[in-house]
Structures are given as structure tokens and as C-alpha cells.
Amino acid sequence: MAATHLGYGTGRVPPPLPLPSLHESTPVVECGAPREPQERLPQNFVVHSARDSTESMPSSGPEQHENSNTNISPLLRPMSSMSMTSLCTCLTVGLLATGWCLLDYWNRQISADLFNIGNIRVMDVSESGAQEEIKPFSKFSYPLTLAFLQFAFMGVFFLVVHFTVNQERPADLRNLKLTADRRWPALLVTHIFSTFWLQALMMPSMRISIGLFASTRAAEIPIAAALRAQVLSPCCGRKHMLTIGLAFVAASVMFFAYAELAGCACVWSGHGVALSGVAFWIVYLMLLAMPAANCVCQEAIMLQPGMHPILLLALQNIFACLLFGPILMLAHLVGWEDVGAAFEMILTYSEVFMLVLWLCAQMAATSVLCITIIHITDAFWAIALRALRVVLWALGMLTTFYFADRGMPVSIACPHKSVWTFVLFCGVWIGAGAIYSDRNGVIEERVDKAQAQAIRVPSAKGAASSSFQAA
Q: How far apart are the C-alpha atoms of 229 and 233, rounded to whole Å?
């Protein structure tokens, strides 16, 4: 009987393959080297050998793949490009807002030092050997002159920076058409009246409730939203009521908590006329609305083609200096302010000169940070983020209080301040919710625009086809 099941179907038994000896060295075949011709094995034999080797090898089933995947899986999932862009934008705007708050704090401190320089007393020894108290400086009370110097310094500085960085010529400014835009007069007037030194001319002569003070200080946020809706186009100036409400509540909570921490409503400092009654509220609300209107005008003018933010700051301050010059001369003639005495004091005392120079430089840096925030976000958030300055002031106050009590926790030393600190940070979280709601609003606006475009395209196609058929 032929053994067809063992061989190749010919009845012959295949000879056994020789096994390599343990003492013989196995030849090593390098990659790319020509291999020696081997005897071609039968197909059935190769199949049987592969099956046997497969059964003898350990199985690499789905369990082994799952173990390998779990070993190489990362701990954190990668973020999408949209989430990463939003996170980087929030961090950048947060750093800019923090820098603005720091500069605003330094401006207030140096301003207080400048206007209180006449109160400095030093001990000196007279010719007779007796000690006496003298006043090395006279009183500085020239806020109008200080505002004029600020406009002149910032105008020249930003103009030089613009021509240096952008490499433009003065003849290129003719293409801007400044006289045809009606928003430029509004920009100049709001810039003049929103200047810190002009706001420092007034101060309340009556006691204000903390709740009323907090709500009025936060009123600039809905004012900015209302002005953006009127000045800008509907697609650019629209803000959801939820975002406006959350930002207003957050600012009110933060101002109220800081007023409770400080024990008074000392968020602004005045060096001029003390007002009360209806006159105080009219001037107070007008001065609150001026910074918001100025930021909205800056955002609207930056939308013009060819208008660089640095050039906008330069022209704004140069025109404000030219417009404010006659006002300063009128104040000198009427007797409101002695301009000659102001320049004499600034040029005579090097201490006063350096304080004025530092104030002008810091105001220039503050303007750069503000217009950068407007360029990245909008005028609404440039005004809303200013409420974070009370958080910086509160942190400085609590740090001083902590080290004064030799490291004792505030919750033990003063529970009242600890409670209002917690309320202050609750206001910060409410502001974060306002930012998130505005992010969702931007997405909804993009969806609305896309849907509107999708509706317009078929209608345009239908109109084109009907006109073609008519033709």
C-alpha cells in the first residue's frame, strides 16, 4: 500500500533532515548579503512545519496587546489646538492685566509721593548748633501741568517708536484720513478726561455707603458694553447679557470685599476740589464713563486699515497735547494753576523731576498694556479686567498683615479679614465664569454667521439659475 499520507503523493518516504550538531557553529547571514541557495521544500511540508512552530510558540493574543497599550499610554491626554490656543490667550491676557494692575498701583504710590512732597520734614542743625525742623520742598499742586507733560512725553515717545519699528515716513500719514473720521474728536476728549491726573482733581467730601460705592465702581463694565454695541458693528460689538451680568457682579463683589478689608472706600485718591451732592455724582459718573468710552474708541479706530496701535497712541497724545495747551494757558491766566511755578519746581529739584519722569514713563507703559489687551480681546475686557487691581491691593495688605503678626494665620488673628478675603476670591471665580460664558458666546456667533452664509449661498444660486433660465 502506498504511503501517500507521509510524502509527496509518490509513495516515497521523505528522508529525515539532518539536525545541526551542538559543536558546529551556525552560520550568520548579514543583512543585504547574498544568501546561499537552499533546497526548495515541498509546500505541504512547509505548512506542517509552520503550524507546528506556531503551536509551540506562546500565543500573542489580545491580552498581550492590551498590556502593551496600557504600558505606553500617556498619563495626560493631548489637548486640541483650539483648547491650547484658548489657554495661551488666557495666560497672555492674564499677564498683561497683572502688569497693568502693578503699574496702576505704582502710579498711585508715586502720585501720592509727588503731591505730598511738601509735607516732608527733616531735622537740620542751625549755625548756632540747635536742631530745627525744616521743609526741603514746597508743595506740589499742579495736576494740569502734569497732565500736559504726560501728553507731550507720550506723543513724542510713541511717534519715535512707530517710525523706528515700522520704518514709515511722515508723508505716509496722509493716507489715514483723520479729518473724515468723526470718532477722532471723541477719542481725544475721552482721552483727556480719562487721564488719571484729571480724575485726581476731584474727591468726595461726603460719606458713601460701601454697597453703593461698589456698584458704581463696577458700572463702567455695562457702560463699555453699551458703547461697543452702539459704536461697533453688531457682529463685533455684541455681548451676551450673561457675560455682562457676571462681569458686573464679579467686579461689584471684588470692590465691596476690598472696601470691607480696607475699612473704607479708598479706591481713588483726590488732590483737588472736594465735591458733594448732585455735582459729585455727575462728575463721578462722567469720569467713570470716560475710560470705557476711550477704550471703545481705540478699538473702533484700530479697525481702520493701516492704523497701527503704536501710531494710534502717538497721534492720540499729540492731538491731546495740542488741544490741552490752550486749556492750560487759560487756567494760568485765570489763576487756577501757576504754570511758571510748576516748571520752576520741576527743573529746580531733581527729586521732583525724577518723580515726574517716572510717572510719564509708567503711564506710557500702562497705555501700551491697555491697547495690547484691546488688540487681543476687546474694549469690554480691557475695562472689566481692571477690577483685578483690588485683588492685588488686597494681597499686598494681607501679606503685610501676615508678617506684622509674625506668621500667624489671618483666619486666627483676624477672622473678619479672612471672611472678606474668601468673598474677594469668590468674585474672581465669578469673573472666570464670565470669561467662559463669553467664550461660548463667540462660538455661538461663529455658528450664526456660518448658518447665515449657508442660507445666503443657496438663495444666490437660485437667483443665478432663474436669471439664466430667463436669459
A: 7
Domain region containing 116: 89-120+136-452
Structural contact between residues 190 and 289, judged by C-beta atoms closer than 8 angstroms: no
What lies within 8 Å, CB to CB, of 417 at 6+ separation is 261, 398, 401, 410
Mean predicted confidence (pLDDT) in 162-188: 75
pTM of the model: 0.72
Question: Within a domain: residue 5?
Answer: no
Residue 38, in any domain of the structure: no
Number of H helices and E strands in the chain, helices first, is 18, 4
Q: What is the mean pLDDT of residues 448-469?
A: 42
Q: Give the count of beta carbons closer than 10 Å to the beta carbon of residue 156.
A: 14
Residue pointed to by grid coordinates 485718591: 269
Residue 436 per-residue DSSP state? H
pLDDT of residue 119: 83
Q: Are 153 and 208 in contact (CB under 8 A)?
A: no
Confidence of residue 181 (pLDDT cuts 50, 70, 90): confident
pLDDT one-digit tens code per residue, 87-133: 888 889 999 999 999 998 888 888 888 888 888 877 777 677 777 77
Around Cβ 352, how many Cβ atoms within 10 Å?
18
Q: Is residue 328 part of a domain?
A: yes
Separation of alpha carbons 30 and 192, rounded Å: 84
Q: How many domains, in total, are found in the chain?
A: 1
Amino acid, single-letter form, for residue 405: D
DSSP state of 58: P
β-strand partners of 274: 203
Q: In sequence order, which residues have a C-beta less than 8 Å from that of residue 385 and are 6 or more positions away?
A: 93, 97, 100, 373
Please state whether beta strands 131-134 and 122-125 pair in parallel, antiparallel, or not at all (unpaired).
antiparallel
Cα–Cα dist 55/74, whole Å: 34
352: left (phi over 0), alpha (psi -120 to 50) or beta: alpha
Q: What's residue 98's pLDDT? A: 92
Whole-angstrom distance, CA of residue 358 vs CA of residue 245: 38
Helices marked H in 125-200 — which ranges?
Answer: 143-165, 183-193, 196-199
Q: Residue 79 has which C-alpha cell?
A: 489637548
Cell digits for 42?
A: 515541498
DSSP output for 340-363 = HHHHHHHHH-HHHHHHHHHHHHHH
Contact 235, 254 (CB under 8 A): no
pLDDT of 60 over the 60 cut: no
pLDDT at position 49, please? 45
> Checking phi first, is residue 441 left (phi over 0); if not, alpha (psi -120 to 50) or beta?
alpha
Residue 21 included in any domain? no
